[in-house]
Structures are given as structure tokens and as C-alpha cells.
Queue: 2 jobs
Job 1
Amino acid sequence: MLDSFLNGLAVVFQPMNFLLLTSAVFIGFIGGALPGISGVILVVILLPVTYGMDPTAAFMLLTAIYGSTVFSGLITAILYRAPGTPEAVMTAFDGYPMTQQGQAGKALGIGVLSSAIGGLVGTIALIIFTPVLASFALKFSSPEYFALAVLGLTVVASLGGRLIYGLIGACLGLFIATIGFDPLTGTSRYTFGSLELAEGVGLIPVIVGLFAISEVMKRALGEETHQPLKKVSINIFDMHILRKIGVTLSRSSLLGVVIGILPGIGASTAAMVSYSEAVRWSKTPEQFGKGAPEGIAAPEAANNAAAMGALVPLFALGIPGSGTTAIILGAFIMHGLQPGPMFMVTSSDLVYAVFAGLFIVNFMILLFSKPFIALFTRLLNIPYSALGPIIVMCCIIGTYSVRNSMFDVWLMLGFGVLGYLLEKLKFPLVSIILGLVLGPIAESELRRTLAMSRGDFMIFFERPISATLIVISLLLLTAAIVVPLRKRAKLKAANK
Amino acid sequence: MLIKQSLLAAGSLGLALVGYASVTIASDTAENYPTKPLQFLVAAGAGGGTDNFARTVKPMLEEVLDTRVTVVNLPSASGAIAHQRTANSEPDGHTLDFASSTLVTSLAAGQNPTGLDELTPVARMQSDVMTLIVDPEKYPDFESFRKHAEENPGEVIIGGTHAASPDRMAFLSFRDASGLDINFIPYDEEGSVSANVMGGNIDGMFGEISSTLSYMESGEMMPILVFAEERLENFPDIPTTVEHGWDLTDGNERGIFVNADTPEAILAKIEASMKEVYDSDAYQEYEERVNLHYREGWLGSEDYRQQLEKNLENYKRLLEEN
């Protein structure tokens, strides 16, 4: 295997391939940084270009673009609270407050470092453990997915702010997730006969509206105080911070890999679950949402690790782990290749060249991100009266391009207004996203599980992985409710 | 009276003129067609089989018709938006709807309001073979699967994509014909279904033969029943539905549709152009590369319509009985 990997590196360092890889990283940087232009769209746009290339070069290009878009979504998330990709939405929660406090450079540095580390952990797992991990992924079926979604949802109880707001937010997210065709029977739910709503409310219109648009409104109405920024200096290797976020980084990278390899669950979910866990295990959970360094490290390490993890089932089993990898699978078929269990054997040269390419891409991210981000930070000096409308325009184009739908644009603007109003109430927007992302998984997997067991709930406890996850969620939920109650009781006793 | 008569005469003359004019315009437009760039509306997301089909045909048709084509993906609501937009477009043959069998399956399930009265099929170009796929360690052949299902009624679970998908229709028609008591669970995407079959969580799935080749090689998954009249040349060991006395041969098909009001002449011209694309070496090479060459794909406008109508009736009946 080491041999194959070294051969792969040799292929990557051929001048033409290296040039291709470098340009792929830059294309990915730009696409990822623009709100709404996600990895999916970039890969689709470049797909026809690759038909003329030899397959190895083509897939190095596509996977490198994929990896670098997942990274660069953090730039606009941190600087303008306009997540460049859905994967970066969690990064905005703590990254943007840091920018408001004049610490954009620090926030970006943490983001870049966490992304690169997460990406490297993911790539190494991909190179060494692909066959093992793939058989682990097959152990996950509906009961396990449901248990995982429940574990993610229980974090609502530990998020800062008023618990009742968190619950309302999560329910709102869950409700939005029910709109559209029922995933199992195909019955319309809350569509009011509209075909546009039949497919459900997309994640991108909601994220872009709730975060980017509401922020532009806030600043346009002059309700936002912003520390003036003259110069942003990005410090990627800050030992002091590294020590502080080290634990979060390791946990999130591992979580990212594990969640990434599960078919059908992508990097956005991984970022969300690892953010939740960072909050849960933190000694200072109240700092999250106000500019906690761990709040940037957790989602960024996890989403980059998960993006690489999502390639594991693609290469080992021919099953895509996420939206973008599904398109890469289509690209393989168009090139006359059949990813499947034999792919690693029959096309080992191609596979290891792609792996080596991804390995190098993570270092390129570390190297090139600084000058690239500098371009974006300079935009901060543009008066907001000009920058705000540009952000709105990018949001509209990006949202439209996802499904070629004007309806989604109106939806996005509607969610912008909603987000603005909810933030006035100090409503935690993160709980809405939590419900929206995890809701569909929880719902359909619960129903599939019960279809598998013909209505018997014991199936959750008969399977070891799901039983463990469910028991952990129950314990965490009880702890989250009992601990504050006991604290309050103690305080009362002390006051008497 | 006289005035009335002359008015009438003038009126009918006018009508005749209008009729004549529209006929000449129609044939003129067929000769000049296309007068502007074409638009392909793909009733599926980017990167899937239908999208690849449209994007492969695009440069070939551009050459045949000497025009430009833009491709727009409209995956929302299983492609229903693409069908609706095609039906509402100018009936001049410049908007082509690229769709799979999902068009009729979602129509039968009431999820797609645009019926075959608003859309005219131009041609079918792909016909993939539906198969029953299982883990060969669990069921080495169709007989063992059948025996297990007969002995354990209600226990066998088949996975599929969604409730109105071609593979659900394959499941329903298979259950209807074989009389086996088996169940269906829909998943969000085909990848999850295969993962569950390989992981042993469910018993099998219905899928196209083109997508299972690499699994057959490694022995992770195996087709054990082919929806076809005769055994496939490349897979002589796999029994067919017809040998078991079940008249089930429809697989997943992909074709092109236009607004139903499109003039005959233009329709004929598009059909002829598509036939030229279909017969080209480049297109046949593509079919072979993506393993769609096991069965003749081409079906002209009229034949395709008849088959779609037959399938639609059948699917409606199956869904009602279910």
C-alpha cells in the first residue's frame, strides 16, 4: 500500500498534474467562498471539461475541488456571517462574533488550521483504512441512523440561552423538515398543492436567509456595532490557542471521519454533531455562540474530515457518502469506470493517485489560504453600503443556481426576514438548523426501522451500536435536566 | 342579409387564410427548425443517469441540427417541474424534456400533474433491464429466494428508492405476478439501498443491471431474476420473469418529450434528428461504456406513447390495489 501511495505521489508531481491540482484548489477556494456556490455546483460545471482528460487527472481535479470548497466556505462565514457552503454554517456561530470583536484574524487562523488538520486526519484514514471503514459503514442501518440523529438532537438541552427557545427552535426546524413529499409514502405534506414545495424546503435557502440576509438587514438598519478593522493578520500556528483547542480538534476530526463514511450523511451533519459535542464537553458552554475558539475548531475539523470520509464508501463500495460524491460517482460512470467493491483492486493506480492528490491538497490549503483570505479581508474596508448589496446579490444567484428555482430565492429572502425577527428575540438560530438537518434523518429512519422490525421498538436495543447510542443519549438528556435542577435546589437551600 | 352573408364569406375566407397561413408557417418552421437555440430541461439532478444522457446527447444534437443547446436541471418534485415547464413552453419544439420512467410512475402516483395529454413523447433512447438483486451468500439463486419468501410470509424486505419510483413499480408488479407476501421499504437514494442489501439488513432490491456489474464481479450482490422476454446474452445463467410465466418486461427507460401542441412536422424532424444521434457510433459507444446496450433502446414517438399509456394503466392499477 505504501508503494501504491508513493507511486500516486509520483503521478501527482508530474508537472501537468501538479498544475491541474493547484488550479483545482484555487477554483475550489473561489467557489467555496461565494455563498451558495457549493462543491456540488462546481463539480457539475467542470464535469464536461474532464471528459477529454485522462481519468486519473480528471478525478484528481474533481476531488481536489471538492476538498477545497469544503475548506473555503469558512471565509465568508467568519467575515460576513454568510456561509459559503452549507458545511460552514456552524462555523459562523462563533467565527462571526469574533470578527465583530475585532478578532477576525484569529478566527480565520483557527479555521484554516482546524480544516487542514481535519482534512489530513480524514485523508490518512481514507488511505489506510478504506476497506475496514467500509465494512463498518455497512453495519449502520436505519436503527443506528435514528440513534445518531437522536444523540445530535439531545444537545438542544445543553445549548446556551433559554431552554424553551432552544426547544421551540428545534421544533420549528423539525416542522420545516416535514414539508414536501413524505419520504416513505410520497403523500404531500404542507405543500398546498405547490410543486415547488413538493421537494421540501432546501437547506441552502434556509441557511443563506437566516444567516446572511438577516445580518445584512441588521447592519443596514444600523443595529450592529462593528469594531473597525484596518488590518487583519492571520496567525495559523498559534501555540497558545492550539493547546486550548487540541482536545476539540482530535475529537472533532475523529467524529468527522466516522460520520463522513456513513452513506447519505454528509459533512454538514458531521459539523453539526461535532459542534454539539464540543458544547457538551466544554467546561464553559456559555461561551459558545459568543466567539469561542472551540466553536470554530469543532465544525471545521469535522467537516473537512467528513468530506474525506465520504469518499471511503465511494471508493470501497461504489456508494456515495454525500451529495458531491454522488456526482463524482456519476462522473466515474461517464468515464467508463465502475466504482464498486473491486475498484480499489482493478483501478488501484487511479485510486492512489487521487488519494495522494488529496493529501497534497491539504498542505496547499495551509500554504495558499493566507494570501487568498487576505483578498477577502481587504473587502472589509469597503463601505458596507456597497458591500451589503453585493452580498445580497451573491446570495440570490447562489440560491437560484442550486435548483434553478426562483421560488427558492423568495423562500430565502423570507427566511432572511424571519431570521432578523428571531434574532431580535435573542432566539438561538442554531437550534432551527439542528432540527432541520437532523429531523428528516430521525423521522424516516425511525419509520424504516419499525418497518424492518414490523413495529417492534426492541430492535433499537437488540443491535449493539444503536443500543449504545440510545443509552448515551438518554443519560445525557437526564444529566442535562437533573444537573441544573439540583444546582437550583442547592442555591435555594443556601439562600435559606 | 346580404351584409350578413358577405360578412360570413369574408369571415370564412379569413379563417381559411389564417388556416392556410398557419399551415405554411408550420411547414416553414419545420424546414427552418430550429430557429433559435434549444433548451433541454432535465427532469433529474445533475450527475445522475438522466443528466448524463442529456449531456451526452447535447453535443451530438448540436451537430445534427447545427444549433446551440443549454441544459437546465430541474430535479424538484421528481422532475414534475421540468414536465410542467415543458407543457407550458411555446409549442415550437425548442424546449425538450429529458425524462426517465419516473415520469409515468409519478404520474400514476398522483405526484406529477402533467399527463401524456400535455406532453408528446419524441422517442425512447434507453431501456435498462430491471433485475431482482440479492446478496448471493443469502440467496444463491432465485429458487432459494422464492422458497424462503414462501416459507416466511411477510418477512422478506425489499428496499427501493421512493414510493413512486420505477423500482417500486417493479416490486409491485413482481409481487402481483408472483403472489409472494413480501414488503417494501423506500430509502432516500439508491446508495443506501445497496448498502443495506450488502450489510444484510434487508433481503434485496430491484435495480438496473447496468449499476450492479461491479458488485457481481466481487460477489457482494447478484441479480437473480431478469425482467425480460429472453435471457440476456451476457448473463445466460440468470432466469427471466417470462420463463416463470410472468409478463413483466419493463425496466427503467429514458426518453425525450415536447409540448403536446408541437406541430407534427417539427415533431417528426426532432424524432429524425434523435434517430440520427442514436444511430451514430459515438452514441452507441457511450451506451456500451455505461452498460446500457443489453436491450434495444430506440422506440419511435407513436410506439413509445402506446407503451407509456399501457404502463401507466398498469401502474395505476397496482397502486390502487396496494
Note: Chain A touches chain B through 52 residues (CB under 8 Å).
Job 2
Amino acid sequence: MQIQLENLVPIPLKDKVLQRSSDIWNKEVSFTPGSFVKIKAPSGTGKTTLIHYLYHIRYDYTGKVLINGKLWQSYNKELIATMRQQQVSVIFQDLRIFEQLTAEENIELKRVMIPQPYCTTEKIREMAARLNVTHVLAQSGKTLSYGERQRIAILRALSQPFQWLIMDEPFSHLDDENAQRAADLIAEECRTRGAGFILTDLDHDSRFAYDTHYNL
Amino acid sequence: MRPFFGLIKKIIQTGIGRTRLIMATVGFGIAMLLMLLAIQVHTDSNQLLYSRKNQNETADFLLINKQITNAMMGESAKSEFTPEEIADIQKQPFVEAFGFITSNKFKVTAAAPGDLHFYTDMFFESVPDAFIDVKNEDWKWNTGDNTIPIILPNDFLNLYNFGFALSQGLPQISQETVKALPMKITISKGLDVQEFSGRIVGFSDRISSILVPGNFMEWANHKFGDGTVTAPSRVIIKTKDPSNPVLVKYLNDKGYTTNQDKIKHSMTILIVQTIVSVIGFFGVILFLFALLVFSMFIQLVVVSCKREIQLLVTLGTAPRQLRRYLMWQFIPLYVITGIVALLILAGLQWWASNVLAANKMFIDPMLSLVTFGAAVLVLLLVYLVNQLNVRKYVGEVS
């Protein structure tokens, strides 16, 4: 799955974005499939906005987001759903966990969304053990701490097949040790799928062997 | 897809307004029952009317005339059928055969022979032979014959035997005796008089009139009549089923009358059909309201779970999956309701067929295919309306 940006400018941030130089906004960018991409972005530069544009849940921009050479807007809802089930996965900054489900059900929901699940339940439990969240799996989403939610969101994103993983500050609520464990798991899962990721964060970090760095 | 739906069930709560849904479902069940009942009763009553099993005769004859009202008295022309009216009757689907009743245009008197001292003015009518239920070799007349064969109504002899004779102390007479009695028939027009000998050749149950052969009537009307052709005021039709509501309605609409007893059965059925039509109409109204409540319920569910549905879609749930899930929440309910309504109706039908059979009326103990078809159609309609609503509301939030 090819992701390209052409002169992408968020309408609410237009003035701000055009005043400063950016590697992404108002540029032509092509993300190479399978590559690990880091986008470093100070607060208020439209980091989350960019993630939402890439995942196509916000549309208030000028310019183009091209997926396999076609505008996001040209895909219909059913097709977008299929792509979100099979080709592109996401970890939101605000995590978006269903509070009426348990932690495990939150992951399961995404796993069984496709008729033939990509991961087995054992695989999920194994990954949960690696992220030290086995003990919260049966807990209701409501009672999870932010750190736990974040790891559940990561596991949820990894339970499906994808070619691109889009992450918005995925370790913001984790300590360094847990963040590194999560990063190692993510890197491993991307490699087995031959997939790439786009990660946005506030600061510089060396948790992954990034192929490309951008400044927003 | 099943485990996924199990999880969605925890997210999209269809439990809200459960009582409303149950009430709507009960309403839908009743509506379905009423509509199907109306259809089934129509089928049953048609079966009662037209089925061979329920018919004692394969065809019936009706004498039809215009109702004599006070306004028409003294103006005999008003009771005559115009050619247009006759053509109209003839082209009605229930008319299998049609004939005029011709009356005499001359004066007729009859006298008993010998010492009986019986003398009366009388009249003749004639109908085409095909309509006469008396089959007799003597029923013929050729020009020049001095004997006229006559058919009397059976009622006529009965009136005499059981009414007149008993009260007046006169002897009762058998059909054979009457047939053996020669009558002196005198036909006249002014001074032109001719005498005939009349012979009763049979008694008719079908036509209550004094009948003579058509060719005699023609000849006599020509010879003794005033030359004008008068339109007939009575006609006779042959029909498969005198209870046919279409026939009864036609007669009523046109202001014609006939032997009311023969069509009474049909009136009862007509009333029953009208009542069940009203019931069916209320069923339809109730059904529409049930549909409305279902639609509102779907809207309520979708709107109250708007955020959840949006997150599901964000995570990659296809609107198609959501629609299928929502449909699965409702459709089994409808199908079960439909089946229950059909079962209740089947029970009623079986019961009714037993009760009617005891009274020598036969209807099918099973529900008709039309009823099943209607049930399927109603369910299909509910399905479509639901599909439309689910598509609309899911489309709005996703």
C-alpha cells in the first residue's frame, strides 16, 4: 500500500503551517512501503491532525492524500473498512478503548473483525505477556490505567494484518522499560508482516531503527 | 462472524426501550393475525360459495324484474327493460344463458269443462324452451293445432290444494287429475274470438308463471295483438351460482329484484366479507403503526450508540457488518411473530372447518396458499423497511 502526500495543508492550521518550514506540510512526500518512518513534531504543529488525515478520519485539508495513487476520498466506506481490517492499522493518542468491554475483548473485537483472524488467541496472550498486561486482560476497559490502555491499544493494533502501522505518540504513558518492550514487539511484528510504520512523537528517540526521519 | 457479533452486542445495546419493542412486536403480531384472518376468511367464504362440494345444483335460474315502486304504479312502461339494459345484463359474467319472458297481448279466459262452473280471466307467458324444467313430449304446438299445452307453477297447485280447497270445502286435486282435465281456453281481441282446448302438461318449480309454447305465443300475439312490440318486463337468466355477491350487487345497484330466498345465502357471506374486510383494514393500519415504531426503535438504538458505532467504524468495522448485526437483532423476532400468527390462524381454521363440517359446509382445514403467500409478503415488507431504516441510520452516523 503506497501512501503519498501532495501539498497537504490543514485548513485550521494554514497560517501557522505556511510560516514555518516543514518536511511534510505543503510538500510532496512518498512513504516507501515497509520502511520505518519517524515524524518528530513539537506540540501544536498538527501531529494528531496528520495522523487523522493519514487514517482518513478527518478531511479538513487542502492538497492530497493518495493511497495507491488514488485519493482517499475516492474509496467508498466498505472499501475503507476492508483496508482498515487488512492493510492499515492505527494506535491513537487518545487510545479509544471500549469501556464496556474487558481489555481482552477490546483486542478480540479487532482480531475477529475479519472472518479469518490473523493471530491466534495464544499469540495475543503471548504478546500480552511480553507487554506485562496479562493480569489486566480480564479487567473492564473502564478500570484500566492509561499505561495499561496504551498497551492494550498496541496489542489491538497488532492483532490484525497490515502493511502500514500508524502510531500517534504510542509510548506517551509508558515508562522507558515498558516502552522499549513495546517498541521491540512492534518492530518484530512489522518485520514478520513486511510492513512499515509511521510514528509521530514529540522528541527524538532511538527505540526503533528508523529508516526515515521527518520534522513536522 | 459470530464471535464478532457477540462483542458488538456488548457495545451496541439494543436493550434500551425493550418494552417498547415488545409492545410493537405484539402489535405487529396482532396486525399480522388480523390481515391474514381477513385474507383467509375471504378464501373460505369463496370456497363456501363456489366449491362444488357446497353446491346442491350446478346451475340455477333466476327471474329478474324491476322493483315495482309506488312511483311506477300505473306506468307499466317503467317496469320494462330497455334494449340497453338487456344488453347489459347479457354481458354480465355471471349470466350463462339469457331469455325473455313474453306476455300475451290479448285477452285470455279459461273455463273448466262440464258442470264445474269454473271461469276465469287469465294470462300466458312464454320463455325459451331451454329454461323450462318440465321435459314433456306434449310440450309442442304447431300452427293449426287446437290444443295448447300449458305449464303451471307448482306453487299454484299447492295454493289451491292447501289454501283454497281446504278452506272452501272443495276437493283437493292431484297433478294427474289436473293434467287429465281439458280446459276451454278462449282468446280474443275485440270481436275476434278463437277457442282452444288447453292441456296442463307439467308443473314447474322454476318459473312461477303460466307458460305456453313460444311459437304459440308468437302466433297469437301476431294474430290477436295490436301489432306493437312491447319490451319485456321480466327476463330469465341461468347462472352457476345465485349467491354470487357480484350478481347480488348488480341486482341491487340496478334496482332489480328476484327470488330473494335464492340470494339470501350470499347476503350473509357478503356481510361476513365486509366485516372481515374492515378487520383487515384495521390490521393494515396497526401494521403501519408497528412499522413506524420499529423504524423509530432502530433510530433510537443507532443514535444512542452513535459514538460506539463511530469508533467501531474507525477501527475498521464495515457498515455492512453493522447493518447485518442490527438486522439480526430484529429479523428473528419478526419471523417468529409471523410464524406464531400463522400457527394461531391455522388452529382457528382447523376449528372452524370442524364446526362448519358439522353443518354440512365444507372448507379446507388447512390455511390457503394465498394466506401463506400474504404472510411471506408481509414479512418481506417488514424486512425491506427495516433494511432501509438500518441503511439510512447507520449511513448517517458512520
Note: Chain B touches chain A through 19 residues (CB under 8 Å).
